[in-house]
Design goal:
globular; Arc Repressor Mutant, subunit A; 13% strand; 65% helix; 2 strands; 75 residues; alpha+beta; Homeobox_CS
């Protein structure tokens, strides 16, 4: 992996191990979240395949993102 690709990594803690999500994969998950903040199992599996993550990691990412949005709206 080249140095330029490392600079495009976004770090997330998902169940303790450090998960690397490339910026272009993160942006696709973000776009999907804006359209559908609560994906069903099939959509989660599809996103997991595209992002090369486990479906559980995608599910937790969506849970965390929804919580962040709620906190922002409360404040």
């Amino acid at each position: 992996m080249c140095l330029q690709m490392y600079s495009q990594l976004i770090f997330y803690y998902i169940n303790r191990p450090l998960i690397f999500i490339f910026l272009y994969l993160y942006s696709s998950i973000e776009r999907f979240f804006k359209n559908c903040p609560l994906p069903n199992k099939n959509q989660q599996n599809q996103l997991a395949r595209e992002a090369e993550l486990e479906p559980k990691q995608v599910r937790i990412w969506f849970q965390n993102k929804r919580t962040q949005i709620k906190v922002i709206l409360i404040i």
